[in-house]
Each structure stands twice: as structure tokens, then as C-alpha cells.
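Suppose a colleague, Dr. K., hands you the sequence of a protein chain of 178 amino acids and asks what its three-dimensional shape might be. Before reaching for any lab equipment, you can write down a predicted structure in C-alpha cell form. Begin with the sequence itself:
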Amino acid sequence: SSPLAGLGENYPILSDLAGGIDVPETLERAIEGTISDSGEVLDSASPALRSIRSRIRSLNNRVRDTLDSIIRSSQWGKILQDQVVSIRNGRFVVPVRAEMRSQASGIVHDQSGSGATLFIEPMAVVELNNEIRTAVAQEEAEVERILLELSGRVGAAGDRLDITLASLGRVDFIMARG
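The predicted structure, expressed as C-alpha cells, is then:
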């Protein structure tokens, strides 16, 4: 029921316009159950999305744990520019002093502006990073599927939503006039 429906005799024009405000409840619930207030697709939008995102979090934690061990190790400790983990080109990397490149077993993904630091993905996390990239692609595909399904539902209710939008526009105009 519309918030304007109780206006009755005191505001007959607004009350009549309120009759045109009709968002299908099932569509409203579907949108609220799919999209967060900030516009993100919720984990709970589908069991597949919840599972994929859980896997991504788990893989990210495994990579971070492995890299934390690497940056604390004596082998890597002496060649690192700094003991931090960062992301370059969607891959977890560590900063290695350029002159120590030959002692770092991994793939170079970037370098600092000065060239003094190389951002290297240690070989120990390459496969985990590959799994993350695969899972992120699956997440993107599932989000797209969910949004396409939701868009179809919005489209199917298009005529009702057009009438609602027109009614709300008239209500807004009347309220602005005072």
C-alpha cells in the first residue's frame, strides 16, 4: 500500500495519484534481496555467488598467509625492498630490490617509477593466484547472470513501473508547488 493512500478526502488529487503507485512486491523483494544499498550484488543473491565469493576469500587468505611466510623468511627478507604484500595486475606480489632480481624466484609484474623496485609474484603463489583469477571470472559471470535475470523481471513489469514513475512525477510536482 502506498504511503499516500491514507490521504482520502483531505487531498483527493494526491489520493488519486497514489492509486497509480504500484511497484510489484515480488519485484521489490527481488531487488532488495539482490542489490545492497550501495549498489553491489549481495553474496546472498544466489547460492553459486555465495560459494564463489567464499572461495575467493579463502584463496586470498591462503595467498596472503603464504606471502606473509615468504616475506618473513630469511631467503626473501634480504632481497625485499619492504616487507609488504601488494597487488599488481590482479596478482599478489612482493617488492624486490631490482639488483636482487636474480635471487627471486618468481614472475615480475611491475616495477616502481624509479626502477629500483620490482613487484614479483613468487612461484609459491602463482597457482593460487591463477585460481583466484579463475574464481573472479566465475564471480563476474554469475553477477552478470543475476543482473540479466533481474533486468528481465524489471522489464516484464515495465508498464506498471512506467505508470508508477508518471504518478510519482506528478506527486513530486504537486509537492514542489506547495
